[in-house]
Amino acid sequence: MAKYQILKFNRGCLRIGVLGCGHFGKQLVLSLLQLTDLTATCITVSTRRPEKLSDLSDLGIKCFYDNKRLAASVDVMFLCCLPSHLSAVSSQIHGCIAESCIVYSLVTAVPAARLKNLLAHSSIVRPHYFFHTKSAWPKLWRSGRTPVEALKVQEIIEVTSPFKKACK
Length: 168
What we know:
alpha/beta, Rossmann fold
C-alpha cells in the first residue's frame, strides 16, 4: 500500500507534535510512521513519562516532557491527553502555541469552543463522530483489527475523515 504524502514545508518536513503519549498517542505515532511519508525526525512527543517510550526514541522520535516547548515548535499538534488532565495541560501551553499551528484535539469530551478558550488558539480541529443505528459498520470494522490495520482500509479512512461533510 502506498503511503499518504504529507505536505512539505520550507524546512523540509511538516513538524508534528503529539502531546500525551499513552496508548492512544503511541498508536497515533506508529500510524503516522507506517501510513504516511513522515520520518521519525519530523515527529516530537511530550509526555509525563518519556522514559517509557524507549521504543519510539530508538526509532529517532524526540520524546521529552516539556509541553510548552512542544506547543511552540510544531506545525500540527495532536492533543492526546486525558480529559482530566486538560486543565493542567492547557495552563502550561496557553499562549505558547505557534500562530500557524493546527491543533487536532483527540480529547473528545471537550467542545471546540471550550478548547479555543483554554488554549487561547483558534485553529482547532476536532473529529465529529456520527453513527447510524442501522449501518454496515460492524462488518466494516471487524473487531480484532489493530488501529494500523483498520487505517489501511480505504473505506474506514473515508467514513472517519474529519474533513468529510456530516451525514444527513
